[in-house]
Amino acid sequence: MSKKMKTALITPGGDAPGMNACIRAVVRRAISSGFEVCGINRGYQGLLEDDFIALNNRSVSGIIHRGGTILKSSRCAEIKTDEGINKASEILKKKSIDYLIVIGGDGSFKAANRISKKSGVSIIGIPATIDNDVYGTDETIGFDTALDTAVEAIDKIRDTATSFDRIFLIEVMGREHGFLALEIGLASGAEFVLIPEVKFDVRKISEELKKEKIQGKTSAIIVFAEGAGDVYKVAKRIEELTGIPVRVSSLGYI
């Protein structure tokens, strides 16, 4: 009887809505295709600590609607080092892993690529990040849900902005890339979107806001990617230049 191929599943880095549905689909498909499947708890940190668990159809029952990841995750600085890559590769070989399925984002894939080159283990990457910044992917797992959640929140904040004649800076995820912020701005009808990739002039923005106020528009929404700068300093400066009350709302991890 031929030996079963062995697949390991890992969700390193930030969690994204839809990861559990992806885990369920991968596990059930792999088992139906004759693979032995195991999961790695807590991302790359769990891999380096040899924290493997067996996965079967029962393991992934009832998780399709749940957020986060049942395999949990963590940040792992060690995986960025040569020592970490070597250790991860040795553990995968010791466990006789044939395929490593990585559900994650850009940083997770970079580490996986290095592990594959060192260990010879085949890597399958499934893009899952609310940042939507994986090259060659139209929409990553989690992006659409994050977009909908942010737009729903901004719709409520706009009611307050209109009622009190205020400007709101809405800080959203996007430390290095502004794909999510840009889509949120377009979908919510924001007046401005500030992202890390594009330099902005607070004076010019303030001048536009003052012009709009003269024309009768007394409130505004500005979507601000977290990597675009210090949102509180920008808010304070806009208030000084426009004379319009400015508030900051950070959507954070919702």
Number of helices: 8
Spatial gap, N to C terminus: 50 Å
CATH topology of the largest domain: Rossmann fold
Overall residue-averaged pLDDT value? 96
Per-chain topology:
Elements: E1 6-10, H1 19-32, E2 36-40, H2 43-48, E3 52-54, H3 82-94, E4 99-104, H4 106-119, E5 122-127, H5 143-164, E6 167-172, H6 179-188, E7 192-194, H7 202-214, E8 220-225, H8 231-242, E9 246-250
Parallel strand pairs: 1-2, 1-4, 4-5, 6-8, 6-9, 7-8
Antiparallel strand pairs: 2-3
Description:
The chain is of the alpha/beta class and 254 residues long. It is built from eight helices and nine strands. Helix 3 packs across helix 4 (106-119) and helix 5 packs across helix 6. The radius of gyration is 22 Å and the shape is elongated.
What attributes characterize this protein structure?
8 helices, alpha/beta, four-stranded parallel sheet, 41% helix, single chain, Rossmann fold, five-stranded mixed sheet, 254 residues
Question: TL;DR?
Answer:
This protein is of the alpha/beta class and 254 residues long. Helix content is 41%, strand content 18%. The chain contains eight helices and nine strands.
